[in-house]
Structure formats: structure tokens, C-alpha cells
Amino acid sequence: MTSYFGIIPSDELKSDIDLAKSKRGSSEPQYPLRDKISLKLNDELIDNLLVKLVQQFPASEKRDTAEKLAGYVRSTVSVLLKQLLGKAPNEQVMKSLEFLESSTFVDNTGNSRIGAALPDDLVNQLKASFAAVHAGQGKEQRQALTTQFKLFADQIIKHFMTDYNKTLDLGLIKRKAAELATSAVGKAVHIAIDKLIPALSQAELEAVATHFDHLLVQK
To answer: How many CB atoms lie within 10 A of CB 121?
Structure first.
């Protein structure tokens, strides 16, 4: 069994990824398409991980915390990508496109997703915690979920920031900027998880469990 995190991309993003595959070997510049895919994927990841979840919460300090986190991560990564991306030879661009293509997979119901492989034990722990939450044991699962979501966030950040940035063949200055931004995002996410998860009600924890359970695939 292999475990994954994965979102179902929008028709536009899926079409652009398919277009990138069809243009492999083309002599025309590929960096504009890579840049478009990268920025669009960033937006859709934030929407699926945070925005759609936050929309289920009633107005509260907890919702404000999650909305601020979503806005911070979206803007930080977007600004970083715009600094790192840009004109590049096709040989370099292909490394990024191949990375993005390798991040796609088909789930158990035939849907194409884009995401990352995750440790089986982490996904098993998350799904066990989700089941316990739905059984009415949300309060008892808060500490476990806090730890598990930090580990989950670390995996997502590593894949879509650290590992992806390595495909860009960055110079020293840009590489340092990328490392600082990645570290800042990781710290902000951990702080928000520490503040948010322990404060969630049973109903809110059930919403979290349902939302993320659909994003974790085992096949």
C-alpha cells in the first residue's frame, strides 16, 4: 500500500499539465507554461488545504487564525515563486515539469490528482485519529492531531517548496532566499497548528477530519 496527499486539480490546471507533457521535446520556450502551472498549483493547494476548510467554520478567532495563515502562505509562496521563476532554457525547465508530472497520480476512483507520497504510518495515524473524532472523541485527539498535522505540513512543504525549488537550479542568493521563505512558512504553519487544533470544538474537529480524509489516499 502507498499513501498519498492529493488534490483534484481544476480543469485549467490539468489541461496545462497535459499541455506540458505534449510539448516535451518542443523547441519553443517552455518556461512560461512552467511558471503558469507553478503559480496556479500554489493557489489550488492553499484553496484545498485551508480555504475550503475555513469556509466551513463559523466566524470566530479560530477562523480568523486559519484565514490569516492561508493568506500568509499564499502570498509568501507566490512572491517567492515570482522571484525564482522566469526565463530559463528548456533543459532546465524540463526538470521542473517532470517533477510536477511525477507528482500526479490516479486515485482509487479514477480521478487524476496532484500531490505527494506520504509515509504510510503518518497517514494511518491521521486516519485513525479522524475515525476517533467521528466516534465522538475529538477532545481526546487534539494533542495527537496537533503533532500529526505538523508532520503532515512538513511533508507538504518539503515536496512543494524544498524539493521543487531544487529543480530550478538556483544560484546562491536565490537559493538562500528560498530556504529562508521555506523556513518562515514552516514556522508559521506550526504556530498556527499549535493555536488552532487544541481550540477546535467537536463539530469543528469533525469538519477537519472529513475535509482532510478526502485529501489522503491509500492505494
So the answer is: 10
